[in-house]
Design goal:
With 260 residues, this protein is an alpha/beta fold. The protein has a single domain, classed as TIM Barrel. It contains 9 helices and 8 strands. Strands 1-2-3-4-5-6-7-8 form an 8-stranded parallel β-sheet, sandwiched between helices. Strand 1, helix 1 and strand 2 form a beta-alpha-beta unit. Helix 8 crosses helix 9.
Length: 260
């Protein structure tokens, strides 16, 4: 299987004697043989690259400036330039631009700047021929507006997708996007299982978003890539398929999108 969104470089994996490398090894042992690690700021790049150097056939990288991690306004352009330079220098190592997007859940005060930063990174992705990993929280209208205005639309994935069938249709009307499903699908009151049949089978991905959103029965713990099979099993149940079939399907999809 492929975990298409995991922050295994996070400091949460360097506590209590654990290490990010240990988390990668546990994932591989659980059948999650490849992992895509998106960056959120330039500060993430060093730890991400260190982990890839240890597991070059298992760990793949993406780089971006996350909407909730914007620095002071006078530093934004410098950080964008740093990330773009890293993407250009790391051809073959970086499989996507991300995590990028729009987030109006925490802060609406920098809406215009979020739009500008998102659009700028989408343009870089299109120029480099890379997909985008999109974070969209309480911001679907604005996210789709930015994408619709781009001169060249990159392919990509709406990560941590938890929307409705109508949301799927709106996104698909804009472009040929994939949908990343994580532990939210296992939660007791989740409506996401009802949405899954509306996602084209060849545009379905699974992810953990670790260390966040641990699936049932691990909910409340630090999430990690080795827990991906729990999400795969719930997706399989919702689609009347076997976990093995979901593993094969989503692996094929991930390899297609990220050129793994």
């Amino acid at each position: 299987m492929v975990d298409t969104h995991t922050h295994l470089y996070d400091a949460a994996f360097s506590a209590d004697g654990d290490t990010p490398a240990d988390a990668v090894r546990r994932a591989i042992a659980a059948g999650v043989e490849r992992m895509v690690l998106p960056g959120c700021t330039p500060a993430d790049l060093s730890a991400m690259n260190e982990l890839r150097s240890l597991f070059p056939t298992n760990v793949f990288l993406a780089a971006g400036l996350h909407p909730t991690e914007l620095p002071e306004p006078e530093l934004v352009d410098a950080q964008l330039a740093e990330i773009e330079a890293e993407l250009r220098a790391g051809a073959g190592k970086y499989v996507a631009v991300g995590e990028i997007g729009m987030d109006l859940y925490w802060d609406k005060s920098r809406l215009e700047e979020q739009r500008r930063v998102f659009a700028a990174q989408c343009r870089v992705a299109a120029e480099l021929g890379l997909p985008v990993i999109i974070h969209c929280r309480e911001a679907l209208d604005d996210t789709l507006a930015v994408l619709s205005a781009l001169p060249q639309l990159p392919q990509g994935v709406f990560h941590s997708f938890s929307g409705t069938p109508a949301d799927v249709a709106r996104i698909r009307a804009i472009g040929d996007f994939y949908f990343g499903i994580n532990g939210i699908v296992t939660f007791k009151k989740a409506t996401l299982p009802d949405t899954l049949p509306h996602i084209p089978a060849d545009r379905l991905l699974i992810e953990t978003d670790s260390p966040y959103l641990a699936p049932v029965p691990r909910r409340g713990r630090r999430n990690e890539s080795s827990y991906l099979p729990y999400t795969a099993a719930r997706v399989a149940e919702a689609l009347s398929l076997t976990p093995e079939a979901i593993g094969r399907l989503t692996t094929e999809n991930a390899c297609r999108l990220f050129n793994l």
